[in-house]
Amino acid sequence: MLLKGESILTKGLLALKNGDTGKVKSIQAGRTATKRLYEMGFNTGAPVKIIKNDSGPVIVYLNGCKVALGRGLAEKIILDI
Amino acid sequence: MSSGTIALVGNPNSGKTTFFNALTGSNQYVGNWPGVTVEKKEGSFTYRGKEYHVVDLPGTYSLGAFSEDEIVARDYILTGNPDVIINVIDASNVERNLYLTTQLLEMGKRVVIALNMVDEAKRRDIEFDIQGLSKRLNLPVVPTIASKEKGIEDIIKVAIQVMEKKPPVKSPLKYNEVIEHHINHMEEVLKGENLPYPLRWTALKIIEGDREVIKKLNKSILNQKAINYIKDFFKYHSSGDFELEIIDARYAFAHSIVDGTINRPEEDVITITDKIDKIFTNKYLGVPIFAIIMLIVFQLTFALGQDTLGGVVAYLVEGLGSLIESFLLGINAPGWLIAFMIEGVINGVGTVIEFVPIITVLYLLLGFLEDSGYMARAAYVWDDLMRKLGLQGKAFISMIIGFGCNVPGIMSARTLDNKKDKMITILINPFMSCGAKLPIYSVFIAAFFPNHGGLILFSLYTFGIIVGLILAKIYSKTLFKGESSYFIMELPPYRIPTIKNVLRNMWDNVYGFIKRAGTTIFVVITLLWVLAVLPASAQPYGEFSILGRIGAFLAPIFKLAGFGTWQESVALFAGIPAKEAVIGTLGMLYASEYVEEGALLVNAIRQHFTSLTALSYMAMTLLYTPCVATLGIIKKETNSYKWMIYMALSSFVIGWIVAVLIFQIGSLLGFS
Question: Is residue B247 within 8 angstroms of chain A, CB to CB?
Fold first, then answer.
């Protein structure tokens, strides 16, 4: 049974396509990297929209701010779709 | 006599620099925070007859211990005691910006909010309830457009009011029960200790596992009970346990502030920035576009900086020299004084000043690109390739600039917030063959490889890059290992550069160059001149001057590399003050008359070198000790003499090894 607001889909950021959106669920990186991402706004529940995910660092809109993320980092960000 | 100190705090890209410029105008100066490589910007302004001191702290996303920038900013806030903090916030991004605000309030500091760049926010259809924001934050909020100098007077008034009234600062938020419980216990234990920081804040930082604070506490004289408590705390709790919850709580607080007071459109407006980025960050177009832009920058730099302005400056310097010469002759000054003034001082000053036009134009153009927001895209476009080579995108930009001149190339390493990346980028920049070395190559190419100029040049440049990259790899595994760099970078919206900003930035850089690098160059050139004309009995610049003797003494070192005469070694040393001097010195020493260029010099080169030794000499020139201006800027940017000396010595050794290898292996293979 789905609780209100619970999504049935979670994906790593890299698995999303241009135009997809999601909210940050967790980050599977090392402590420093995770903390850094959290502080920059990739914290729990932050809304993310994919702008460019073909090659090179991923570009997303994070709550209205455009950010580029290295692929190694991006794949560790898990989103609720 | 300052009536108060204002500190500026804010995220990168919040327009804080523009704001600082609007506040202080030309009453600002740049220095270094002691012991670190972070720039310190201070200034002042006068309002109603009173003078106020402004400190612009580095732009940061947080005030933790993540980078030198953060540590510097935080230390100043806590111990520098600013009377009020103006928190510059990007109006299009308030929620994220408020994360920093929360931390300021938790430190117990008085804050005034500058809601900056409201014009951009309005263009994105974002609406504000300023009163509501102010009420929820319990802080004054003043909308500003720093680039148009709007709202500046309003916020000055408010900041001064706060300074004078000194309202109490409330802790902005409470965390969840568990964390608050730990905070309270920690406060109990620490109560009564002589803490350098506010009590609750210290307790919170310990629980967050803040390394800097814990380090400071370990050094201070906490009583045993406190030390044991903290030790026990970390026995049962990893510091990672609460960190993220705390960050989430701060963001939840930020969200509660903007929810309802700031309205964003449902669908994000597709901005011009996005449209431009579709092309500029495109997988296939990104790099070529960058190449074109940089080509234009360099062409303009050399055309305006070297040819046009450089010509004017050289003319002026010459004119000044003549003036001084006639004056001294007129008052019957002794010959040595005249020689010292003309060949030493004017020559020395001239060398510094001749760099200025190029650096000025280069900085103007680069500053324009940076202010427009393009540079972030350039770093983005190159990051992939750079990572494979052990560097990152932003480092690449520094390398590219270095091909024009190593001085601005090294200065641009400031944008690398990771110390490891910054240091490595600085140390490999001199291997990007700078513009001043071109005349040297062209003479040798004319003498021995007239039909292969392009190939030789390309090989030299590429070889320099390869050496640089190999060293980068070595440094990242030895000297600067451990700290890795992640690519997280904000891509600010494209903006029309603010002329004031660009000019001020250009001026800061040029002035900084003249002042620091200039003093070093000047001292060294004067020294070399003295060595070249003493003893008085010997012919100046001749074999028996001190410099000549040093050259002769060191010449055997170069025998292995194929150019072991004293003239060649002296010329190399003359290249340390400025690379252009290598050719001039060779000409002067070979011929009885001073020849700068032309067929005479080419002939002289043909007589004293072979094609093989020409190659080894060019390799030496490519790699060895960079010019004094570069050494000076390395000292300035690393804030230490250690690295400057290391650069001078290591590059000399590397150049020597390569030159020797080229000559020896070439000889073995039968070339001559």
Answer: yes
Strand partners, B54: B6, B43
ipTM of this model? 0.91
**Whole-number pLDDT of residue B354:** 66
pLDDT digits (tens, 9 = 90+) for B72-105: 999 999 988 899 999 999 999 999 999 999 999 9
Given CB atoms, is B264 within the 8 Å cutoff of chain A?
yes
Mark which of B214, B243, B263 sits at the end of a domain: B263
For A41, name the nearest residue in chain B, comparing CA atoms only.
B96
The domain spanning residue B31 has which CATH number? 3.40.50.300
Alpha helices (H) in B478-517, listed in sequence order: 499-512
State the Cα–Cα distance between residues B555 and B462, nearest whole angstrom.
Answer: 28
Closest partner residue to B380 (CB to CB) among A41, A44, A68 is A68
Query: Residue A12: beta bridge partners?
Result: A78
Prediction pTM value: 0.81
Question: Which residues touch B462 (CB under 8 Å, ≥6 apart)?
Answer: none
Identify whether residues B562 and B664 lie together within a single domain: yes
Domains and CATH numbers, chain A: 10-80 (2.30.30.90)
3-class DSSP state of A21: strand
Phi, psi for A68 (deg, rounded to 5): -105, 135
Tell me the chain A residues in contact with residue B123 when contact means C-beta distances shorter than 8 Å. none
Report helix, strand or coil for B114: strand
Judging by DSSP bridges, how do beta strands B84-90 and B2-10 pair with one another?
parallel
Domain edge (last residue) among B263, B283, B308: B263
Which residue range(s) make up the domain with B391? 270-672
Q: Which residues are within 8 A (CB) of B94 and not within 5 positions of it... i.e. 6 or more apart?
A: B115, B133, B254, B257, B258, B262
